[in-house]
Amino acid sequence: MESGLNEKESRTMPETQRIVIVGGGIVGLAVAREAGLRWPDASITVLEKESRVATHQTGHNSGVVHSGLYYAPGSLKAQLCVSGVKLLRQYCAEKGLEIRDVGKVVVAVREDEEARLDTLFERGTTNGVPGLRLISAAELREREPHAVGRRAIFSPHTAIVDYKAVCEALAGDVAQRGEVVLGARVVGVRRAHGGGRTVLVDGPAGEAYPCDLLINCAGLAADRVAMMTGDNDEPRIVPFRGEYFSLGARARGLVSGLIYPVPDPRYPFLGVHLTPTMAGDVLVGPNAVLAYEREGYARLRVNPRDLRDTLFWPGFWAMAKQHWRTGIAEMYRSFNKSRYVRTAQEYIPELTAQDLRRAPAGVRAQAVARNGALVDDFWISRSDGVVNVRNAPSPGATASLAIAGYVCDQIAHDD
Question: What is the pTM of this model?
Answer without folding.
Answer: 0.93
